[in-house]
Amino acid sequence: MRETVRFVRNGRVVETAAPPDLTLLGWLRGSGSTGAKDGCSEGACGACTIAIGRASGDGVTYETVAACSVLLAQVDGVEIVAVEDIAAEDGTLHPVQRAMLAARAARCGFCAPGATMSLFALYQNTDGDLSADAAGAALQGHVCRCGSYRAMVAAAVTAGGNRSQTRHDRLGSTTAALLADLAADEELRSDATAFVAAPRTVDAAALLWAEHRDAVLVAGGSLAVPALARQARRPQKVILLGRAVELAEIEDTAETLSIGAAATLSAVRFHLAAIDPDLGVLVDRIGGPQLRSVATIGGNLAAGGRGADLAAALIALDAAIVLRQGLAERIVAADAFFQDDGKQDRGPTELVARIVVPKPRPGATFRAFKVAKRYDLAPATVTAAFHFVIDHGQIAMARIAYGGLGPAPRRAVAVEASLAGVQALDRSAWARAFAALRQDFAPLSDQRGSARYRMETGQALLGKALIEAGSNSDRRTRLAGFRDTADVFG
Ligand SMILES: Cc1cc2nc3c(=O)[nH]c(=O)nc-3n(C[C@H](O)[C@H](O)[C@H](O)COP(=O)(O)OP(=O)(O)OC[C@H]3O[C@@H](n4cnc5c(N)ncnc54)[C@H](O)[C@@H]3O)c2cc1C
Q1: Of 67, 75, 104, 111, whose CB count within 10 A is highest?
Q2: What is the sign of the dihedral through the CA atoms of 27, 29, 35 and 36?
Q3: Ligand 1 centroid, distance to 351 Cα (angstroms)
Q4: What is the pLDDT of residues 404-422, one digit of tens each?
Q5: Domain 95-165 has what CATH class?
Q6: Taking the model in full, what pTM does it have?
Q7: Residue to mutate, 296, 345, 376, ligand 1, most ligand atoms under 8 Å from C-beta
C-alpha cells in the first residue's frame, strides 16, 4: 500500500500527497503552474486542458484531459504535461506555440493555453502533416469567445508542416521507461477514515464501496470530481475505479461486445463504431477529446437518465448491465435499468461492472440518432435508436428506443407493435407508428426543447430510420459537423 501518488513530469518522477478533494488543476496552480486556467470548473470549456502521456512502445502517446475534472490521485502512474512544460529547456517555443503566435490565435489568452495543449497532443501523436480536419476534431472541446478557431486550425496545419524535434520527443524513451516502472507499482490507499483508494480488482473495489457507503466512487471523474469540488464539506473518502484492470477490459467477439464499465469512451469508440457507424458518431458527440479520454461508459450509464446518449442505442441492441454489490452479481436488461431521470435499478453501493452488447445478426439494420441544439458540446434533446430485421421489405423484428421523450430512456413498445409484419415503406403504416409514439411517450417541455418539438423530432427520426432501413441501401443522410466543411477553414 502506498499513500502518495507518483507521476512523471518533464522526465522526472514526482511523488506527492493527494488528498481526496485535490484536483489536478488545483495542484498545478497551487504549485505555480498557472498556465491552465480555471474556466467553467466542470470540464466544458477546455481552458484547463493538459496532456496525459502513457507509454506506447518505447515512446509516449498523449491524450488530453480537463484538469478541473480529474483528481490529482487519478494521474498516478501517468505522465502529465502542462503548458509550462512544452517549450525546450533553453526557452525555444514548441512548434505549436510558435505557430499559435504567428497565426495570432491567442486573443484574450484565456483559452489559448488549453487549446495549445490539445494541439500539442495532436502534434506529438502524429508524424508528418496535420490536417485541418484533425485539428478541428482536436479542438472540439474548446470554447473560445474571441472566435479564434480558424486561426488555431491554421496554426496546427502550419506547425505540422514545419516539424522540428521537441522537448517531449527527446524525453520520450526516458519517460516510457519511468512509466513502465510506475505501472508495476502497488495499490494506492491511505488510512481508513480519510482516503483515496485505487483498488486493482473489481472485487476489491466492490467490497470497499460496500464497506464504506459514504465514499464517493469516481470512475473518469468528469461529473463526480466537479460535483465533489463544489461541496462545502468535501468528501473524505474516494474510491477510484481507474486502476481496476478488469473494469477497463473490452472483449469483442463475433456475437457480443462486452465492455468493462471503466472503459473510457475513447477506448470504446472503435468497438461500437464497428457494430454500426452511427454508434461511433454518438460517442464522438459526447463532449470533446479531453472528456472522452477519461469519461467511462459505466459513468455515462450510472449518472445519466435522460442525459445518457448511449442509453437508447444500448436498449435497442438489447444490452445487459452487469451489476456488483460486494461479491454478489446481478444482471439487468438495459431497458429495465433506467427508471427515471437520474434513477436506475441500482442499489446505493451497487457498481456497474460490465455492459454486454449482443451484436445485430447479419442482415439486421441498425440506426441511431442524436438531435441537439448544436452539433458539438451539446446534450441531446432527443436520441433514438432503431433495430430492424426486414425480410423482403416486411418488418420481421423492430426494437426501438428513445431518450429525451420521457423521464428515462425507454423502449417504444407501442411503435414496435404497430410495425410488426408491415412493409417498411408503407406510408399508412408510418402514420400508425407516429400515432403509436404518442402512446409510448408524453414528453415535457424544457429549455432544450418543447414537448411538441420532442415528439415531432421523435416521429421524424422514426420516418428517417424506416426510409433508410426499408430502401435496402447503405445510404445515410446525416448532419456533418463543422469539421467536415473543409472550405470553412480554407
Ligand atoms: C462537458 C461535458 C459534456 C458532456 N456531454 C455529454 C453528451 O453530450 N452526452 C452524454 O451522454 N453525456 C455527456 N456528458 C456526460 C458524460 O458522458 C459523463 O460525464 C461521463 O460518461 C461520466 O463518466 P465518468 O467515468 O467520468 O463518471 P464519474 O464522473 O466518475 O462518475 C459519475 C457518477 O457515476 C457514478 N459511477 C461512475 N462509474 C460507476 C460505476 N461503474 N458503477 C456505479 N456508479 C458509477 C459515480 O459514483 C458518480 O456518481 C458530458 C459531460 C461533460 C462534463
Answers
A1: 67
A2: positive
A3: 14
A4: 999 999 999 999 999 999 9
A5: mainly alpha
A6: 0.94
A7: 296
